[in-house]
């Protein structure tokens, strides 16, 4: 389908307008709490895109990805809160958090270079837990992380002296804190999307694809497998750290509890469900899996409307329905809702053996 | 000075000595084959040459410099390409993407594009199927793809591990025709094969390997006529 440049631009403008108006519509229609959920959803989009680099592009199964989110969040919290009395500016703290997370990515990547598949998954799972347990226990003998109590009163994000934690008036429009965070997160999400897109089509992206398919053959192509793998871990972790810093500033409070294994699994689910390796798929997966569990809280009202009273407690029903949704998607769209090209091909390529044998006969005749 | 010079190379898997002090060489423009039975250590030797296995002792020189302890990816960039056993195709990537991987280390995009087009003309079937996943190609086509991909790294020496394995006899003929063609254009070839007769017929020289040692060497013509070789490797 040929599309003119003008149509592309019009689509972009329409999409931009929609994204700009969305928070106001949500705030008006569904309320402030849903606006906060949207802010969180954008953080999860960033996280999912980060993990997508590691799992989707490079094919390295990472079950401890939330650790990098935690590192980013704690970096922000320690450098901009009363914990140490430090209040560094946002533009310094966020890159530091992302960089430290990236460093942790290399730290995790280096010892696991020779591991693949299940083995790598187990080690990364352990790594995620180690980070969480450290955060939980680094309150003695020297109090660094404040242990399970977490860190309070984290400075809200502040840009050019404007604190996003307060309500502001702009051109007669009232912008609450969640509104402002929405726009900041949206901007950074777009940046992450842009970087992901560029990486996908770059030499590095091709090298990741080669490693994902066959590491030995990749090495035989002249690809420095070790460095390219470390780069995947580092890039993924950097995105995670970025999202973590934003999360700390947005919430104002963090504790180790927010960074448990379930969160890692959830992010992995987002990319698997959405379509591993495919950016629109990953975004869709992240949005769905953030919004769906929240929306399922409302089953109580539905039950009351249909049946007159609440039969099953919504909090029980919520995870049940959520699990069922996951199973159904995987049954009917095993490559994800919006699969990547390669995944699609893989599924088409069933009955390969028969095709190959026929082709061999064909070869021989030619 | 030989292009590839292997001296007293030994490789062990734990206590098992798979290659026990092998010396051989390949000169510029030469086609050399290494024949031997299953388990003789041929593949191990190849892997050690290209840096995929660490040698226990000995040395490997390529184009005048030592590559004994260099990592694989650097060796490839020096101009030594390998077509691994079982072809090592990226089966979920397309034919075109596979070929592009072969040129990964190169920066001269225009020349790469030109050579890729030439490749499609040479191997028509690859051209027809350039946008299909490589996993859907037949065995013979995959072998062609593996060879084409290796050639796109512009090697001075092409190492092939059992290119005839699992292929129909006519396809094998075709692969060997291609190899002769490649050699005629100045790429040296070092070929590991179980199909001894075919290998010797299309090479200048040959080495015979058994239980980790080189047990015979000579020009292809003398080896073909050697009764011991005939009995051991040509079979009935």
From TrEMBL, chain A:
One of the Pfam families matching this protein, by short name: BPD_transp_2
Protein topology in the membrane: Multi-pass membrane protein
InterPro entries cross-referenced by the UniProt entry: ABC_transp_permease (IPR001851), LivM-like (IPR043428)
Domain of life according to the entry: Bacteria
Entry annotated with the keyword DNA-binding: no
Membrane spanning residue stretches: 41-59, 66-84, 90-110, 117-135, 181-199, 230-253, 265-296
GO MF entry, a single one: branched-chain amino acid transmembrane transporter activity
An example Gene Ontology CC term for this record: plasma membrane
Subcellular localization: Cell membrane
Entry keyword set: Cell membrane, Membrane, Transmembrane, Transmembrane helix
Cell membrane listed as a keyword: yes
Main location: membrane
Name of this chain's protein: Branched-chain amino acid transport system permease protein LivM
TrEMBL record, chain B:
Molecular function terms, GO-annotated: ATP binding; ATP hydrolysis activity; branched-chain amino acid transmembrane transporter activity
Domain ABC transporter as annotated: residue spans: 4-236
Cross-referenced Pfam families: ABC_tran
InterPro entries: AAA+_ATPase, ABC_branched_ATPase_LivF/BraG, ABC_transporter-like_ATP-bd, ABC_transporter-like_CS, BCAA_Transport_ATP-bd_LivF, P-loop_NTPase
One annotated GO biological process: L-amino acid transport
Gene3D superfamilies documented for this protein: P-loop containing nucleotide triphosphate hydrolases (3.40.50.300)
UniProt keyword terms in alphabetical order: Amino-acid transport, ATP-binding, Cell membrane, Membrane, Nucleotide-binding, Transport
Protein family (similarity comment): Belongs to the ABC transporter superfamily.
Name recorded for this polypeptide: Branched-chain amino acid transport ATP-binding protein LivF
């Amino acid at each position: 389908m040929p599309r003119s440049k003008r149509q592309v631009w019009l689509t972009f403008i329409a999409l931009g307008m929609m994204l700009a108006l969305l928070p106001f519509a949500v705030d008006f229609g569904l309320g402030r709490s849903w606006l906060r959920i949207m802010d969180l959803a954008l953080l999860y989009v960033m996280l999912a895109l980060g993990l997508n680099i590691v799992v989707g592009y490079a094919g390295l199964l990472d079950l401890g990805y939330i650790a990098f989110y935690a590192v980013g969040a704690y970096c922000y919290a320690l450098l901009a809160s009363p914990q140490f009395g430090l209040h560094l500016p946002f533009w310094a703290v966020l890159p530091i958090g992302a960089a430290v997370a990236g460093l942790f990515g290399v730290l995790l990547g280096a010892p696991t270079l020779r591991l693949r598949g299940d083995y790598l998954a187990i080690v990364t799972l352990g790594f995620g837990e180690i980070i969480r347990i450290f955060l939980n226990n680094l309150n003695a003998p020297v109090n660094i992380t404040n242990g399970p109590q977490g860190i309070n009163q984290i400075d809200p994000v502040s840009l050019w002296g404007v604190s996003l934690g307060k309500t502001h008036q702009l051109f007669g429009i009232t912008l609450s804190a969640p509104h402002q965070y929405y726009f900041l997160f949206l901007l950074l999400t777009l940046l992450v999307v842009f970087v992901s897109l560029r990486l996908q089509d770059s030499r590095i992206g091709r090298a990741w694809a080669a490693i994902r398919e066959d590491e030995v053959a990749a090495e035989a192509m002249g690809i420095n497998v070790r460095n390219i793998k470390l780069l995947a871990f580092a890039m993924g972790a950097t995105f995670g750290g970025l999202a973590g810093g934003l999360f700390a500033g947005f919430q104002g409070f963090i504790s180790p509890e927010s960074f448990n294994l379930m969160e890692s699994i959830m992010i992995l689910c987002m990319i698997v469900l959405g379509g591993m390796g495919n950016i629109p798929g990953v975004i869709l997966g992240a949005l769905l899996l953030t919004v769906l569990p929240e929306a399922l809280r409302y089953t109580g009202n539905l039950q009351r409307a249909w049946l007159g009273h609440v039969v099953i407690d919504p909090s029980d029903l919520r995870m049940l329905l959520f699990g069922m949704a996951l199973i159904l998607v995987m049954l009917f769209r095993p490559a994800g809702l919006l699969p990547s090209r390669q995944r699609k091909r893989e599924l088409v390529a069933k009955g390969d053996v028969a095709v190959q044998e026929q082709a061999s006969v064909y070869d021989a005749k030619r | 000075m030989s292009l590839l010079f292997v001296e007293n190379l030994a490789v062990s898997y734990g206590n098992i000595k798979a290659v026990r002090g092998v010396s051989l060489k390949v000169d510029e423009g030469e086609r050399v084959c290494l024949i031997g039975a299953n388990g003789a250590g041929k593949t191990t030797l190849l892997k050690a040459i290209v840096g995929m296995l660490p040698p226990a002792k000995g040395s490997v020189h390529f184009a005048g410099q030592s590559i004994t302890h260099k990592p694989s990816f650097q060796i490839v960039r020096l101009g030594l390409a390998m077509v691994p056993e079982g072809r090592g195709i990226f089966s979920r990537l397309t034919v075109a993407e596979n070929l592009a991987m072969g040129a990964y280390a190169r920066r001269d995009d225009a020349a790469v594009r030109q050579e890729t087009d030439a490749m499609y003309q040479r191997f028509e079937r690859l051209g027809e199927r350039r946008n299909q996943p490589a996993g859907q190609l037949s065995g013979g086509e995959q072998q062609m793809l593996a060879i084409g991909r290796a050639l796109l790294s512009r090697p001075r020496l092409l190492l092939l591990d059992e290119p005839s394995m699992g292929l129909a006899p006519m396809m094998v003929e075709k692969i060997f025709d291609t190899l002769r063609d490649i050699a005629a254009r100045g790429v040296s070839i070092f070929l590991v094969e179980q199909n001894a007769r075919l290998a010797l017929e299309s090479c200048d020289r040959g080495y015979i390997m058994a239980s980790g040692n080189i047990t015979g060497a000579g020009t292809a013509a003398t080896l073909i006529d050697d009764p011991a070789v005939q009995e051991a490797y040509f079979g009935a």
